[in-house]
Design a protein that fits this description.
546 residues; alpha/beta; 12 strands; elongated
């Protein structure tokens, strides 16, 4: 949005410069042709140079301080019309063609700033005309010319206003259709996540069995398919969140290496078929100011693309200093992208497909989401590629943070011994998901109390709850009630098939972890191990039932 405003302001400033240059040059040309007294031409040329100087100053101010400043716009309008009116009054009939510039300026204000500015510009243009008629004998002697110009000044902006309203309505219908589409996809995604989530957990249970080579290969195939579906769901939800316009950046000081390590670790945990692909990270110890959640989504999409199209070769993720900012690059050594496609890869649903290509999962949303998130964070994204050498995507503009940020403690590895005997209250209204999750937790040594709603007398060390329970209470409210009944801040995890950012906004406890379905066993186990450590810290010698 900020870029659109800046481009609009610059475009109108360009029109102003061209108008100032035109009227400055036009008067001397008329004087040279003998159509304008030299004295008038000199005065008009001096005034034109002043008009040009003010126009340059306004353009500099727009570049230096971009944004919507109504005061600056009003000043510019008054300057434009007073300058043009002065030239029309001084020049008389030979300056009549300059009135076309007045109309050009008026329509430009309406098209770029909207109907309110169009009305104001029309009023100033009519005032210009009235003053010129009052000061210039020629115009008073030509009433039909004056009436024609007045009618033109009214009719052209009126028709422009009609076109603007029609265009706005068309855009509104298009936005509504887009939102309806993304809402449908998001709801369909939510409804599909439940069975996919349970299948993923059952597959992880199978992995712990004594499988032969063929059986393990089948489970790995299921795992790859589930990972592809999970990535599609995340892309759909990210696209829906961006289309809704509700996503806001919340920058903070983060250590870039920590974000990259977390994303790459999660990628390996959730995609076993990528586990053997070497990923090299060169990030130094830079601290930047950005939104860590949005940055994670950007890196996830870029790394996912690099792994999919890198043909199993090494992927490089690097952070480099460029001036006063940091640039992040993701480089793969795949076959590259033909130059004809490079300008299109950031469009929604666009995928580079060549003849005899093999099928690669995805919707073509990854780079589109990256571009929109970068715009939200005020970053610049670019791509370059060489056939047979690979592709590099560069994100530029991460501001270097001045304040020191202590490095985050590394995530504790999941260990079955820490989960043995851990009492887990599992609240889930879907029977298949409840059984799959409970089976997996019990294999890790947890003691699981299963519930489809808020239990009457809970006794637990950790709570795992779905958010949508189709009951009178949400999962977050159940967690709060359990803590209230036990009189302790029991560690908890909230699972959801909706957008996690939207759920975090309505959950009263900002420290409550919210995970998106389908969740993989490695991610759940790692988080549960961390919560078990918190339980042991709170209760050094917990008495647990065997």
């Amino acid at each position: 949005m900020a870029e659109q405003i800046k481009d609009t302001e610059r475009a109108q400033a360009t029109v102003r410069l061209m108008s100032a240059l035109l009227v400055t040059v036009y008067a001397p040309i008329l004087a040279w042709a003998g159509q304008l007294p030299l004295q008038h031409a000199v005065i008009m040329a001096i005034h034109g140079v002043a008009f040009l100087a003010v126009s340059l100053l306004l353009r500099w101010a727009i570049i230096r301080w971009p944004g919507n400043y109504p005061g600056r716009r009003v000043f510019a309008m008054v300057n434009d019309y007073s300058a043009l009116g002065f030239h029309l009054a001084m020049g008389g009939r030979v300056l009549l063609p300059v009135y076309a510039v007045v109309l050009w300026m008026t329509v430009g204000y309406g098209v770029r700033y909207g109907s309110r500015y169009l009305a104001a510009a029309t009023g100033l243009a009519l005032l210009d005309l009235a003053v010129v008629v009052w000061l210039t004998p020629y115009w008073r002697e030509q009433p039909y010319v004056t009436v024609t110009l007045a009618l033109t000044t009214l009719i052209v902006p009126a028709y422009t206003h009609f076109l603007l309203r029609s265009n706005e309505k068309s855009h509104a219908r298009e936005r509504e259709a887009t939102l309806a589409k993304t809402r449908f996809l998001a709801q369909a995604s939510h409804d599909l996540r439940q069975p996919i989530h349970s299948i993923a957990l059952f597959a992880d249970c199978l992995r712990d069995e004594n499988l032969n080579g063929h059986q393990r290969h089948l489970v790995d195939s299921i795992d790859r398919s589930l990972n592809s579906v999970s990535h599609l769901f995340r892309s759909i939800l990210d696209s829906y969140t961006l289309d809704s316009g509700k996503l806001e950046a919340k920058p903070e000081v983060v250590r870039l290496r920590d974000v990259l390590d977390t994303v790459l670790r999660d990628s390996r945990d959730t995609a076993s078929h990528w586990a053997e692909v070497p990923i090299r990270v060169k990030a130094g110890d830079w601290q930047v100011r950005t939104d860590p959640h949005l940055l994670s989504t950007i890196v996830q999409n870029l790394v996912s693309n690099a792994l999919k199209y890198g043909e199993g070769r090494e992927v490089l993720v690097a952070a480099r200093r460029r001036g006063r900012a940091i640039a992040l690059q993701v480089h793969d050594r795949g076959r590259g992208i033909p130059e004809a496609h490079l300008g299109l890869v950031f469009e929604e649903f666009y995928r580079v497909r060549l003849q005899r290509d093999k099928d690669i999962e995805g919707l073509g949303l990854g780079l589109s989401i990256v571009k929109r998130l970068c715009a939200l964070l005020g970053l610049r994204v670019s791509i370059r590629s060489r056939l047979g050498r690979g592709t590099t995507v560069t994100i530029e503009g991460f501001p270097i943070a001045e304040a020191a940020q202590p490095p985050q403690a590394p995530r504790t590895a999941a260990g079955a011994s820490r989960l043995n005997g851990l009492r887990v209250l599992l609240i889930e209204d879907d029977a298949n998901v409840l059984m799959a999750t409970a089976t997996l937790l019990e294999r890790w040594g947890c003691v699981v109390e299963r519930a489809s709603a808020m239990p009457a007398a809970p006794a637990c060390d950790v709570v795992i709850s779905d958010y949508d329970l189709n009951a009178e209470m949400t999962g977050a409210e159940c967690i709060a009630r359990v803590r209230e009944q036990l009189g302790a801040h029991v560690p908890a995890v909230l699972l959801t098939g909706h957008d996690t950012k939207a759920i975090r906004e309505v959950v009263p406890d900002p420290a409550l972890p919210v995970l998106a379905k389908p969740i993989r066993a490695a991610e759940l186990r790692s988080l549960l191990t961390t919560l078990a450590l918190a339980v042991q810290t709170r209760q050094p010698e917990p008495a647990r039932e065997p």
